[in-house]
Amino acid sequence: MSDQANRPEQAYSDEEQSTREQILRAATREFAEHGFRGASIRGIASAAGVSPGLVQHHFGTKDGLREACDQWVMFLLKDSQHLLLQRGTVPLQDDDDVFDRLDDIQPMIDYLIMAMSSGSESAAKWFFTITEYTHDALTSGRIGPALDPEQDDSWAIAATQTAMALGITAFYRTIQQALNIDDDTEMLIRIARARAILASDRIVSEQTRATLNEIIDQYAEKRATGKPPPASDTANGTSDD
After folding, report:
1. Is CATH 1.10.443.10 what the domain over 1-60 is classified as, yes or no?
2. What sign does the dihedral 3-8-12-17 (CA atoms) show?
3. Domain boundaries, given as residue ranges, for the chain
4. Which of 198, 213, 216, 236 is 20 to 30 Å from 91 by CA-CA measure?
5. What are the tens digits of pLDDT across the range 154-198?
């Protein structure tokens, strides 16, 4: 991999970072469609609207680009979860970050499906990283009653929760076929609603569940009309009681 590909993010100008993300978005789509072996630097460059040389300038080899895609997808997954967990007290219409992240997730789904089904090392890395993040959320009390690591077997719960979440991703397109849904946005919204309903009261508080449902409602409204409705008292962390 070239020195350019190894530079820290803060070393890039805004223009360079924009170009890198443009290439990463195209690469995740090409890898998802053709597989890691089938996708080519030339095809990725064409999909991104840049030259093959520019792809190599930023990421070096195809393996370097794949590694960068893995890291980017993991960032999106963690950042999305972080934003969702932090939305208990912030008026949703004042900050569109969470909606932008939900938009980012949709094109990543097929990449995740392909990576997990290919038996790549990325799947194991994602599992361990998400398990650690989930364990922290469950034991900190941020989303509900805090689990006691000594009494609740919190690591087993976190690992199982992660497996359930990634399992949904692995069967995402199968679920979509079973529900006879053509629109990806509708699919994402319906899966999110189902997960909110199935979340155990033992680990997810009613306030967290209400906030997640509010986010889902506003995201659905924004996708339908172009802008979210005013945030409710529940989304702002207050109530009428």
Report:
1. no
2. positive
3. 1-60, 67-241
4. 198
5. 999 999 999 998 888 889 999 999 999 999 889 989 998 998 898
